[in-house]
User: What shape does this take?
Amino acid sequence: MNNVDCIFCKIITKDIPSKILYEDDDTISFLDAFPVAKGHTLVIPKEHHAKIQDLPSDVNQKLFGTVHKMTKKVDSLEGSTLIAIHNGKESGQEVPHVHVHLIPRSKNDSAGPVHSMFKDKIELTESEIDSLYDTLKIN
Ligand code: ZN
Assistant: This one.
């Protein structure tokens, strides 16, 4: 299931060294090589899939089981953690292998809430909201 061109698949096979924090049959967690905060950690499934919805259900559950385990550790650093997934290239995903960022956050770091990522605010009409509701609702 590995992709020869994928940097995360090479971390899984140990062809690229990393600071592995946790590993089981289905998932692995390691320190981000380009941390934005002290303790910036990644959790990934061992199967190569680009997006969350591409993961088989059992792999998804195992991924978030490891996120749950690692969040307890990472959160012990600052007492607050941003958990983030860029799901697709246009959302900021730089490696097309599902990865969950666990980023320790502190009061005086330079980041803000997720809403601060978007400089342009949008306004929706009632009909647009209704249309989105119909599109996204799971029946
Ligand atoms: Zn991969």
User: Anything to note?
Assistant: Strands lie at 20-23, 27-31, 41-45, 81-84, 100-104. Residues 3, 6, 8-9, 48, 97 surround zinc ion (CB under 6 Å). The mean pLDDT is 96.
